[in-house]
Amino acid sequence: MNSIADYHKNSKSVHKITFSTFQVTKVSRIQNPVLWLRYVTRKDTLKNELKIKAPVINNVKTGEPLDREVNEYHLYHGLNSSFITGITKFGFDPRFCSLQGMFGAGLYFAENSSKSNQYVHSGACTCVGPSATTACRCTQTDEYQMLVCRVILGDTLVELQHRGNLQGQFWYGRRTEPTKPDGSIYNSVLGESKEHCPTSSLLLREYIVYESSQVYPEYIIRYKRAQK
After folding, report:
1. Chain center to CA of 80
2. Where are the domains of the chain?
3. Which of 64, 107, 143, 147 stands 20 to 30 A from 168 (CA)?
């Protein structure tokens, strides 16, 4: 509740169902040993590659890092509820990510629950992504689902000013992590927000990884969009 952005309250700009708060109905912990082994193996690999602690990401609204050495955090991910079973069983698949994304075809996460809520639709609704149109079949009484994931950000490129995702621009068609001048790669991207960088075009932070093994879906939050 503390990470709901004020301007998302009672707004129909990105979703037709309004809310002023979320009413949590159930929280389930996901235990998938195959995905967990893949995740901790990637985590150990990054620790060995980084050798020293990656530059710290500060002021993450979901709390302190789970492992500061690799910038591991809990972050939100919103989606159509019909996809959750597949993700909790097989993990995220970047091949399904849209190349139209602001930072290319990556896996996107948020520190604000209300930002992820923009992408959440009930299983009866076939919409994917933000939708304020009549095509959305969500209703005020529906129960919704959002994922809370462990995400390894590692050595992060902090994008203070977005370099564009149109043809010919930096993020157009990207499916991999950006490269550093020395030829090595960043492990993730942080699209910085106006809160921390006044010249940014983003109102809220975006966290993006391009390697699915850097994400472990750990919790399903079931909730309703409610009014106080």
Report:
1. 14
2. 6-226
3. 107
Tokens (6 digits) for 89:
């069983």
At 53 the pLDDT is 72
**Each residue of 125-136: pLDDT tens digit?**
988 888 766 688
Q: Buried b / exposed e across 125-146, counting CB within 10 Å, b at 16+?
A: bebeebbeeeebebeeebebbb
Cα 141 to Cα 55, 62, 166, 223, 224: the distances in Å are: 43, 27, 38, 10, 7
Cα 79 from Cα 171, distance rounded (Å): 22
Choose among 156, 57, 166: nearest CA to 102: 166
107: helix, strand or coil: strand
Among the four given CATH numbers 1.10.730.10, 3.90.79.10, 3.30.70.2640, 3.90.228.10, the one describing domain 6-226 = 3.90.228.10
What are the pLDDT digits (tens) for 169-179?
999 988 989 99
Return d(Cα 50, Cα 72) in angstroms, integer: 14
pTM over 0.70, yes/no: yes
Closest CA to 216 of 17, 66, 36: 36
